[in-house]
Design goal:
8 helices, alpha+beta, 6 strands, six-stranded mixed sheet
Length: about 200
């Protein structure tokens, strides 16, 4: 089971000269991420997206999608659970929850390799909390936590979990997803965000 790293500080700190020098040296000797380039990262995010919407367990995977509200023209990149994305597409496409409807939704989602969707049905938009998603809060979480440190922990241990409030969790998951790392939460025992290895999932 993933271990909650209680003692390790993941909060972002103000840089000093020694820290900046260390970061510079690190950038000169190591790749910026575990992926070879933007193309690989884009593919990884697409595969994580597919895993999230295909997952039917009580442990839900978070995914990031770009949504345009056709009623207002507003576009947002938001993080939500894969089953909520599927639910929104069922509403938008007027698809039933039988085998035919499930296939219709999944086939449609698979064509969206950029994870970009245009939705008009307000119930569909509400299903993914489009109206409530606050990009300012995303920036606050980015400033509060050292996400690069989390990435390094995941690379090293292939294991990570953290207690977060519901308000913070989806934004933390958003930042990790954009780095190429998928996370999830147990719907029965919420409050803990856990790293999910798509190639070797525990759930």
């Amino acid at each position: 089971m993933p271990v909650h790293r209680k003692a390790l500080s993941l909060y972002a700190t103000k840089p000093n000269m020694n820290r900046l020098l260390s970061i510079l040296l690190l950038c000169l000797t190591l790749p910026l991420s575990s992926f070879k380039g933007d193309q690989d990262l884009t593919k990884e995010k697409y595969l994580n997206f597919l895993a999230a919407i295909e997952n039917i367990s009580t442990f839900s995977y978070f995914t990031v999608v770009k949504i345009k509200d056709l009623n207002t023209g507003i576009t947002k990149e938001i993080c939500t659970k894969g089953n909520f994305v599927s639910g929104a597409l069922h509403i938008e496409l007027n698809a039933d929850y039988d085998a035919k409807g499930e296939k219709k939704v999944l086939d449609f989602a698979k064509t969206k390799k950029d994870r970009y969707f245009e939705l008009k049905n307000k119930k569909a938009l509400d299903n993914i909390s489009f109206y409530d998603y606050d990009l300012k809060q995303l920036k606050k979480i980015q400033s509060k936590y050292d996400i690069d440190k989390v990435v390094q922990l995941i690379k090293k241990d292939k294991n990570f979990s953290i207690h977060l409030s519901d308000k913070e969790m989806k934004y933390f998951a958003h930042l990790l997803f954009n780095k190429g790392y998928m996370t999830g939460e147990n719907n029965c025992f919420g409050g803990i965000l856990e790293y999910v290895d798509r190639m070797n999932p525990e759930y």
